Fold:
Amino acid sequence: EVQLQASGGGMVQAGGSLRLSCATSGFSFDDFAIGWFRQAPGKEREGISYISSGTHRTYYADSVKGRFRMSTDKAKNTMYLQMDNLTPEDTAVYYCAATDTAWGTFMHYDYDYWGQGTLVTVSS
Structure:
């Protein structure tokens, strides 16, 4: 059974940093594409980073490029999202996701498995 569990959210001041973790089970990072998404109040779920298992490349949305970094630890079956230089516009519920395909996308409907979400609040 594929499972994901996100953690690490919290409240931080603008300019600060947080690292989100997503513990996974039931699949391999070598076989599934994985991604991080976020959803702010009243907005659609936004894809912010993903890793395609086919290429092992990491992709970032323009909104987070240069500030966020996605990584994985295969030994721990855990994926991470390091978030630096946070702004109030980054306030959202953050989700990790996975799909049984080699190619990831920024589209939430392309992912079949989701973590429960963790809230990040950035104050000005």
In short: The mean pLDDT is 97. The first strand starts at residue 3 and ends at 7. The chain has no helices and eleven strands. The radius of gyration is 13 Å.
